[in-house]
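Entry 14. Ran structure prediction on the chain below.
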Amino acid sequence: MSLELTPCQQENLEAVESELVGVYIPQCLEDGRYQPLQCHPSTGYCWCVDQYGDVVEDTELDRGMMPNCEVRHRMMKCETKCRQARLEAQASAMIGRYVPQCTEDGRYRPLQCHSSTGYCWCVDELGETIEGTKAGPGMVPSCDEFLGNYGCFL
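Output, structure tokens:
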């Protein structure tokens, strides 16, 4: 009888079996989900992760400092439209797929860029492309000048 391992349990097992000195070993909850607070004993650094094991932006603090992951963990149970779109894109594992960029609180960043093509454009608060803002590789549109016509990103 083989048990189906969660992604956290699989990463944990692979790290333990690697027998590498100082390797980071993901910490899992009893039910197999990622523990919101992850720490690397060898370096002394701690950070927060979401339910997919992705590092929560701005939680990687200086050595010896502990981020408050519980507040962030509760906030992430209801995903925003941007965060859902981002997670779906990442889960598809399709090479070159556009992955939306979200703010820490889950809203769309006004400037979106496709890392594979180099194109960037501006979006409104719903993630819809603002007409006339698409810029080719090496160019970045100034989203501030377009956002005045489309409301604010509060």
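Helices lie at 7-18, 69-75, 81-92, 143-147. Will compare against last week's run tomorrow.
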